[in-house]
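Record pair follows.
FIRST:
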Amino acid sequence: MAERIVLQPFDRILSGYEKQSEMAVSVADCSRLCRMYESLGVQGYRLGDYRGASYLNRYLGCSVSRAPMLIYKDEYLIPLVFRTSPESNLLFEELTRMTGFFYLLDWLLKFRPKKVIMDYNKKKERGDYHIIDSPYVAFRLSEIVDGAGFPISQFQTLEEFMYWNRQHRLIKNKQIGRHSKIFDANRKENVEELQMILKVIQLKYPNTTFFI
C-alpha cells in the first residue's frame, strides 16, 4: 500500500504583511501525485509565487511564495496549498478523492471559469498559465462527498434527487423568482453538474445509481 500523503504547514502572507500558516503538499510528494494523476491531465509540477484573492484567504488579498503547483492540461497551475481544515486533509487521506477533485475542476472550468480561475481577467500570454483556486475546489468537493454523498448514493430516481435538492440546494440555478426551478432537467449546465456529482460520489460509494 502506498504511503499516505500528509499535508505540511506552509506560510502565506496576507494583505498588510501578516504571516499565517496553512497546509501544503511537500515537494517530495509532488512527483508521486504527477504519476498518480497523469491520465487525468497532470503534466508535472513546479514551485512558483502567486498573488490574489481566493478561498484560501476568504477572498482577501494574499501572497504565496514558492508554492508547489501541479501543471494541468497545458493551461493551468493548481497550487497544492490549502486551508487548515478537515476537507483539506481528506483530499489526500482518501485515495479516490483527488480523482473527484479533477472531475469537479473540469466541470467548473467549463461552466464557471470565473469562479475557479483566480486570475481570470488577466490577459494570458503565450506560455503563461492560469492559477486555479484549489482551496475552493477542495471545499466544494467536500460539500458533494461529505455533505451529500451518502444520501445521493441511496437515490434511485431523478425525482428523489430533485425533492432532496429543493431542501439542500446542492445544485442551484442563478434564476431568481418564486417559480424558478432550483434544478432544471432541461438545462445542460444542471444536467452535466448532476452527472459530474454522481461520478464523484461513485468513487466513494460504488453502488450509486447513475439515474440521469
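SECOND:
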Amino acid sequence: MKHKKRASALLVITMLATMVLAACGNGKEEVQGTDTPKEPDSVSPMTISFYSADSNASWNNMQDTVGKKVTEKTGITLQAEFAVDGSNQKLPLLVASGEYPDLVFAKGDANLFVDAGGFIDLTDLIEEHAPNIKKVYGEYMNRLKWSNEDEAIYVLPTLNAVGHSAFDAGGTFQIQHEVLKELGYPELKTVTDYENALKTYYEKNPKIDGQPTVPLTLNADGWRIMISVTNPAFGATGASDDGEYYIDQETTEAMLHYKRPEEKEYFRWLNHMNATGLLDKESFVQKTDQYEAKISSGRVLGIIDQEWGFGNATNALRTAGKENRTYARFPIQLDETTKDAAFQSSGYSAGYGVGISTSAKDPVRIIKFLDYLASEEGQILMNWGIEGEHYNIVDGKRVIPAEVQDRKINDNANFTKETGIGLYLAVFPRYGDSVKDSTGNYFTTNYPEQITENYTPSAKETLAAYNVEMWKDLWPKEDEFKEKPWGAAYNIPVPSDSNINITYKKIEEIVRKRIPEIILTDPAKFDALYDSFIQELNDAGAEKMEQEYTELVRKRVELWNN
C-alpha cells in the first residue's frame, strides 16, 4: 500500500521519538563520465518551501555565493525554515495540519509523513527526470525502498553520503597535546592509561593560567548526553554504533546497549572518576555554551566527545594562541580485550533524507532541482565553491588558496554564511569523502593531503611521537570487522503505530535521569543502583521493544537482500 490513512494529531504527537546519531561507512569510489543534464530544463524563477528538522545558524536565505549560483543555474530559491536547536516538535504539527512545505527533511521522523500520506513516491520521478540522482545512489538504489510491505522511495537519503570513507577519526577520547608532551607521549590504550595521564598531569598542574585545572569534563546538555556520556559506553567496549541498541551480528537480535555487562563496567569507571575527583562536578548541570567556554579557557585536560562537539572551543583556543591546549584523540577501550569498532562498515546505510510532500505543486521541477545538486557540477559547487574565487585548478588538481583555507579554519562561521560552502550538503544527495569525480579530483575537501596540511604544529608533533601520519592510523581498520548487513540500525524507520516509539520515549527519560545518578553515586551503591536501572528499563517495556526492534532489523536485512 503506497499510502496509509493520516494519523490523528494526538496519535502522532504521542508517538514522536527523537533519535540522533551519525554513521561512518567506508569504501572508495570514482565517478566516471559527465553529467546529463547539468541544469534543469527550466530556470524560470520558482520558490520552494523547505523545512528541516536540523538547526542551521548559518542559513542566509541563499544570499551566499553558492546559493546565488544555485539559483542562477536552476531558477530555484529555497524559502527555508530550520528547527530551533534541532527540536522536532513542529513535525507532528505539520503532519496534523495536512499542509506541508514542498520539501521536508524530517530526520528520524519521516515515518510520520509516510504514514499520513504526506510524502509522494519518488520512484518514477527519479527514473524519468533524475539521471544524476540515479548515478549518486548507483548500486544502492535498492536501499532507498521504504519497507518490505511498501517498496516506494519516499526520501532521498542525505545524512549519510554515498561512497563515504572517512579519512580521519574524530573521537571519542580527547586529551590535550600539552599533557601528552609533558608526560613524554605515554601509551594510551585503556581507560586506565587515559586516567593515569590525566591524573599525573593534574597533580603537577592544579592550575592553568591561574584557574583550577579540570581533568575531565562531559557534555550532558539535552541530546548531547548520548554523544559524550552514553554512546562512549559501547564505543569503549568494542561495539559499533547502532544508536540505542546493541545488535548481535550472528543472530541479529537487538537489545538496549546499556544491558551489556561491559557497559556497566564502563559506567563504573566514570563513577570511579567522579569519586576520585577527576570528573568535573559540573558535567551534568552545565549547558553547551558553558562547556565550550570552559574548554576555550585551556584548563580542561580531557574530553569524551566527538571533535565536532567542541569545534568552536578548538577554534577559540587556536585564535588565542593556545593550540598546544587543543586535543589529540585515541581509540581508548575499557581494557585490551576489545577494539574500537568506529570504522566497522555499514555499507551504505541510506536513512535520514529529504522528501517531496503531497502539497508540492510541481514535483517534476523540484526533482530536477535536486538532480542538479546531485550532478558533478552541483556537487563541486556545494563542496568547493566558485573556481577562481574559492579554489584554483593547478596541474589538473583543485587547490584551495591559503587565505581561503585560513578563513575556513579560523573564521568558519562567517565564512560559511558568506560563501555557502558546505552549507547545503547535509540535506541533499551527495557523495562522501574518498569519492572522486570524472577529473580524478575528490568531490569533498576532506582528503588526506588537505587534512594533514591543516593539522596544527602540536598535532603534527603528537602524531609523529606515536609514529602515525593521521589520527585514523591509530584506529583498528575496516577490514578487521564484518560489514553490518542491516547498515546502521538507527536509520531503520519505525512505523508510527509501533509500540517502539511510545516505549522509547519512556526509555529515553529513564536513561537521561538514571545514568547521571549512577555516575555520581557513592561507589558502594553503584551495583544496586545500576541493577535497579536495568529493572526500571524492563518495567517500562524494554524487553518487548527489543523484540519488536529485532524484527525491524531482520526485515531490513531481508529487504536489502531482495
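COMMENT: The chain has two domains: 25-165+348-450, 170-342+498-562.
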